[in-house]
Write a structure and sequence with these properties.
Four copies of one chain form a homotetramer. By secondary structure, chain A is of the alpha+beta class. Chain A has one domain: Roll (Thiol Ester Dehydrase, Chain A). Helix content of chain A is about 30%, strand content about 30%. Chain A is built from five helices and six strands, in the order E-H-H-E-E-E-H-E-E-H-H. Chain A has a six-stranded antiparallel sheet with strand order 2-6-4-3-1-5. In chain A, a hairpin with a 3-residue loop joins strand 3 and strand 4. Chain A starts with 7 loop residues before the first strand and ends with a helix. The interface between B and C is medium-sized, with 19 and 19 residues.
Chain lengths: ~170, ~170, ~170, ~170
């Protein structure tokens, strides 16, 4: 899927008018939504749709979230959400995320350079840091009971583990 | 429950910072949310929790919505949502709604005058009109099939019908 | 910019988890947000960023909105928002919009066929209709006073007018 | 305003349908919105409207947020947001928050027992813990520059400081 050390998934979005507030910037709770979009698209880039996981009875709710707000995003800004697997086990996972302001044209040129149309992977996040965050999650089944991913979905378990391992070897 | 002609239910809310946008006013889609809160509380004031209806397998999605935006609500404004049943049948219902800017102290004095703590009923909406709206709905069962309310929940059917009838006799 | 009669602008988006509700479908107010995204991108495709208009002191708030909900969108669905200018004058504009479920791969093939990467124009909306809507707007200046677009921004006035005229000649 | 050690401000709200997601619970980002409502109402209970602060050119954006999700809130649940000042200085402030599920009738009886209609203060949060959170903020002026609150608004500075001091003496 990607070279070693290239562990950050990138996903672009554009700031919606609805996400602004009367300070003229993005209302802070929306960054949490972007982080989720980043996680969803990172998993999709691994070949798994989160929608399908839920259809199979696997859910990944948050147990903790932490965000540091560095700079405010503004309406119509082009933002790229970078996501990687920071900690990983059979029951729990922690994602590390960064939302950065990146000119879409710059980002498209990076994608082209890699011969990729979408969803490239990076060794390091690029652009002006807006928000960094960490979210911790637990795998649950339909009865909201913790569930081992290696049993429930061995394929995704292996994919996420390899992604985490690459990050570790990169340190 | 109330005197004849007193067919508008009133429910207060305060504008949330999250609901503003960079024009410094409430982003327009949020009014649609307020209209729903008004409908939910009107039904609750009749003695029925919409939550219980869904638990019993009755759903009331929208088929149409129409809104006229008259004046902009601003952060921290005190707003009262007025709701009444405008059209009514076994399968379908149309609510008429008005969101108005009303000083909460004025509204509380009106409630006190009527000896009511909450959820008073009015013959006419009060305050400065912000948005007027109409929403059309259809009753559905768990299989998303249209369902007659008079069969599925005769009690609520009778309550809503009496509310509509009072409105008609008031014309 | 495009052939005669080709008056519908198309913009793809994917349903966010945040936009769903406990009925398992998109909460209705979010469609209103999508219609705005469609309008913004249609204007951008004409060469004008709405962000720049606001920076110049031109605002385009809604005066009326109407929506008909035909089918529910679901999480992760691929949706295309179609937008066209339905009525047009110096002070006011009405947009007609349709949100349709369209496989992104199908939409990308249509774009490729037209040699366009993004934001194609269509003679007819494609895909399964979810929501159709109309929104009316008035141009305002910084003092929230109605402002003639032909004076305030003759270039955009001409672009929107030509778009409307093509729609009319297509009837 | 209140007895020593009674440092938690309480504010009730009801879960909106719009805040749910397809898991049937409140979408996680909305808790961050509730924490803000709690902070706003705590400041209002001290006698200061945050709206007026912004009108005077004082802003209090977030620099960090942390949340632990313990139990999921559901549609129509009655929730009380507890807020207190955890750290305090001239430039920065940290609020500690808890969203708890509390029957509104229980909460109203507590308020009555204290002879208060609204916005009571508590020595300890009550009810079933849903989410606990911490938010850090910095005071900014109109130019987005850090601003000392003791200079910009000595009255609010004294009020917040006394609230923090009571919390400390309670330890």
């Amino acid at each position: 899927m990607q070279d070693e050390n290239v562990t950050w998934h990138a996903w672009p979005l554009r700031v919606r008018y609805q996400e602004t507030d009367q300070m003229g910037v993005v209302y802070h709770m929306n960054y949490l939504n972007w982080l989720e979009i980043g996680r969803t698209e990172a998993i999709r880039a691994l070949g798994v749709a989160y929608r399908d996981l839920e259809a199979e009875g696997l859910f990944l709710p948050l147990t903790d979230a932490q965000m540091a707000f560095k700079r405010a995003a503004r309406y119509d800004d082009e933002v790229v959400v970078f996501t990687r697997v920071a900690e990983f086990g059979a029951l729990r996972i922690r994602f590390e995320s960064e939302a950065r302001k990146v000119e879409l044209s710059f980002w498209q040129s990076l994608c082209s350079a890699q011969g990729q149309k979408n969803a490239p992977w990076f060794a390091e996040p690029q652009g002006e840091l807006l928000v960094s965050g960490n979210t911790r999650h637990v795998w649950l089944n339909r009865d909201w009971q913790p569930t081992r991913l290696d049993h429930a979905h061995p394929g995704l378990y292996a994919l996420l583990k390899s992604l985490r391992d690459m990050g570790e070897s990169a340190l």
